[in-house]
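Hi R.,

As promised on Friday, here is the backbone we talked about, encoded as structure tokens. Could you run it through your design pipeline when you get a chance and send me back a sequence?
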């Protein structure tokens, strides 16, 4: 795994993360991570960068995907389900390339990729295997209630990962109680619905 692109993160993530039938080392010195900054626009289709911590919100998922991809994909369908299931859109989101932003994953407010969305992006390299240790994280998730939006903590019910990534979800912002993953997508999180406050990608 490439370590030259990783950054130190807070000691709050020291130790081991235990979950399901596996153990994953916490990102004590290597994962690129983000604690959300203030939103810069209103809307319920939002983006957050694991590199810059910048967040933006838009009225449509079309705009959100355009921003998350650095303008590489500007014509995703405005219908949320159509955007996530369109194979051409998926291929282009995964396209990446030198200097491009990599979309790590898109989280959805409802099961079956419905309603509002939260896209997370990172460096153009995306993810590589193995999944342990993780390469990127966001914790806690953005809270836009002060601007009339969504608190994404405990409000995720489905997701799709991109750019070669798998996703691991935790029900606490200290990332110590794994509840779902590693997985590339989930149309319904089942018992893990409405519990996520931290996400790893690798």
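Update: got your reply. Pasting your designed sequence below so it's all in one thread:
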């Amino acid at each position: 795994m490439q370590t030259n692109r990783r950054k130190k993160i807070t000691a709050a993530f020291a130790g081991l993360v235990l979950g399901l039938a596996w153990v994953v080392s916490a990102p004590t010195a290597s994962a690129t991570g983000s604690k959300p900054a203030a939103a810069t626009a209103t809307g319920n289709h939002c983006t957050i960068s694991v590199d810059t911590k910048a967040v933006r919100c838009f009225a449509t998922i079309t705009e959100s995907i355009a921003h998350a991809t650095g303008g590489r994909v500007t014509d995703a369908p405005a219908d949320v389900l159509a955007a996530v299931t369109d194979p051409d859109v998926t291929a282009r989101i995964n396209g990446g390339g030198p200097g491009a932003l990599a979309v790590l994953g898109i989280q959805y407010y409802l099961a079956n990729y419905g309603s509002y969305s939260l896209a997370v992006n990172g460096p153009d390299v995306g993810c590589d295997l193995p999944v342990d240790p993780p390469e990127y994280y966001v914790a806690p998730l953005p809270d836009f209630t002060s601007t009339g939006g969504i608190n994404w903590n405990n409000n995720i019910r489905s997701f799709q990962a991109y750019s070669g990534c798998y996703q691991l979800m935790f029900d606490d912002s200290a990332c110590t109680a794994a509840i779902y993953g590693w997985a590339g997508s989930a149309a319904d999180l089942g018992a893990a619905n409405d519990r996520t406050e931290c996400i790893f990608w690798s």
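One thing I noticed while checking it: The chain has a mean pLDDT of 83.

Thanks again,
M.
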